[in-house]
Amino acid sequence: MTDTELRVSKIEDGTVIDHIAGGQALNVLAILGIDGGSGEEVSVGMNVPSDRLGRKDIVKVEGRELSQNEVDVLSLIAPAATINIVRGFDVVEKHRVTRPQTVGGVLSCPNANCISTGDEPIESRFDVLEEGVRCTYCGTIIRDSIAAHISVE
Amino acid sequence: MRHDHLISAKQLSRGDIDAVLDRAAEIAADPGAVTGAHADTLLGLLFFEPSTRTKMSFDAAMKRLGGDTVDMGSVDSSSVKKGESLADTVRVIEGYADALVLRHPSEGSAKLASEFVDIPVVNAGDGAGQHPSQTLLDMYTIRENAGLDDLTIGIMGDLKYGRTVHSLAHALTNFDVSQHFISPESLRLPRGVRYDLHEAGAQVREHTGIEDVIETLDVLYVTRIQRERFPDENEYRQVAGEYRIDAGLLEAANDELTVMHPLPRVDEIAPGVDETRYATYFEQAHNGIPVRMALLDEML
Ligand SMILES: [Zn+2]
């Protein structure tokens, strides 16, 4: 076990998201829809020294695995992140996030006149551009601060 | 045309555009040749925003092809008023018609509709998004009057919310066209459209005044600046006055200039221009019939 892992408590079953760019941990929690109100046991390490990133954030969530939609949006905000699935205190899967071609759900279109923000039986969908993402429905481009468009359910 | 739906001008290749315009020219030359060509076809007209021209034009085009139309009527009298989703509405109407023409105030509405039905959907205007059938008739008018290659066009007015502008600009990237966009700063092309034009390698320049470019233009495409885009009446009047075309301004123009407008106009083109050789907007409106006949004929 390395020093940095000791800084936040070990979890029994759940997910460890490591190598998040320093300062992005709260945005990662927002992607997961975690605000502390639903009772998950969450540990957050912020600005932990890292060989790869200089400073990094770590999020550990007990009893929760990530959906593909969540991993997709995570990859936009934390492109260097690694996801460790923990069962019985052991890391049973470890993978890097990859940049998807589209992301569904999680983000909401900033264009209030977009059909995807109305009361329709669809989830939002964005094409991933070299820089930023673009609403598949109305074409609006989000280039900066993608985290600001995470939909709050 | 290979497409099941016509949602955006972005999906149109040069080949697609040429095919529709060529077919439209054949139909214009000999309307009798296609009478009855689609005798069993029923076209659904779903207009969630008031429209007279576009709806009548699709209605007339379908009937001239021998088919018929069913019309949802006004939003006030439909179940939409009761809060039904667009996805539900189009799935119901799908059972009544062989294709749908949709106008809706939200951007992306036609795209959504196309995901819920198996019959062709034609976008007849989705909010400030796209209006590709208008673009085909605009392209037809440009081709007839000025040709589509080695062309310099000025597109003026409300470029931010103008869906006819967004569609036309995309379609023109298939041809050798230099595009000048003339608008107040607050109504310039949206970032998404500028991004697409850049990706398509289009030659694009933006201006705030028409005087800079009027003499270089082969085509001037004028659109309406709407009062509701401005916080107050004075600001609107001032801006609208600066983006108005009259006979005096056109003295600086090339003799062959073609002046177009998707109509209806309010006062952005002075009535005096109607009598000049530049005025092409009524011809443009009439081209809606052969072009929409050609489009329906290609799609159905
Ligand atoms: Zn959108």
Terminus-to-terminus distance of chain B: 10 Å
Shape of chain A: globular
Terminal CA distance of chain A reads 37 Å
Please mark out the parts of chain A with pLDDT under 50 across 5 or more consecutive residues, or reply none: none
- Name the biggest interface: A-B, 18 and 23 residues
Helix content of chain B: 25-40%
Spatial order of strands in the largest sheet of chain A? 2-3-1-4-5
CATH superfamily annotation of the largest domain in chain A: Aspartate carbamoyltransferase regulatory subunit, N-terminal domain
**Strand and helix order of chain B:** HEHEHEHEHEHEHEEHHEHH
Write the layout of secondary structure elements.
The complex is a heterodimer of chains A (153) and B (300).
Chain A: H1 3-6, E1 14-21, H2 25-31, E2 42-50, E3 54-62, H3 68-77, E4 82-87, E5 90-96, E6 102-104, E7 125-128, E8 133-135, E9 141-142
Chain B: H1 14-29, E1 42-47, H2 53-64, E2 68-71, H3 86-93, E3 99-104, H4 109-116, E4 121-126, H5 132-145, E5 151-156, H6 163-172, E6 177-182, H7 191-199, E7 203-207, E8 219-222, H8 233-242, H9 247-250, E9 258-260, H10 281-286, H11 288-299
Parallel strand pairs in B: 1-2, 1-3, 3-4, 5-6, 5-8, 6-7, 8-9
Helix pairs in contact in B: 1-5, 1-11, 2-11, 3-4, 5-6, 5-11
Bound molecules: zinc ion (ZN).
Question: What would you say about this model in short?
Answer:
The complex is a heterodimer of chains A (153) and B (300). Chain A has three helices and nine strands; from the N terminus they run αβαββαββββββ. Chain A has 153 residues and is an alpha+beta fold.
Give structural notes.
The complex is a heterodimer of chains A (153) and B (300). Chain A has 153 residues and is an alpha+beta fold. Chain A folds into two domains: 6-96, Alpha-Beta Plaits (2-Layer Sandwich); 102-149, Roll (SH3 type barrels), CATH 2.30.30. Chain A is built from three helices and nine strands. Chain A has helices at 3-6, 25-31, 68-77, and strands at 14-21, 42-50, 54-62, 82-87, 90-96, 102-104, 125-128, 133-135, 141-142. The termini of chain A are far apart. The mean pLDDT of chain A is 88. Chain B is an alpha/beta fold and 300 residues long. Chain B has two domains: 9-130 and 288-299, 3-Layer(aba) Sandwich (Rossmann fold), CATH 3.40.50; 132-285, 3-Layer(aba) Sandwich (Rossmann fold), CATH 3.40.50. Chain B contains eleven helices and nine strands. Chain B has helices at residues 14-29, 53-64, 86-93, 109-116, 132-145, 163-172, 191-199, 233-242, 247-250, 281-286, 288-299, and strands at residues 42-47, 68-71, 99-104, 121-126, 151-156, 177-182, 203-207, 219-222, 258-260. In chain B, the strands form two sheets. Chain B has a five-stranded parallel sheet with strand order 7-6-5-8-9, covered by helices on one side. Chain B has a four-stranded parallel sheet with strand order 2-1-3-4, with helices on both faces. At the A-B interface, loops of A face helix 4 and helix 7 of B. The structure holds zinc ion (ZN).
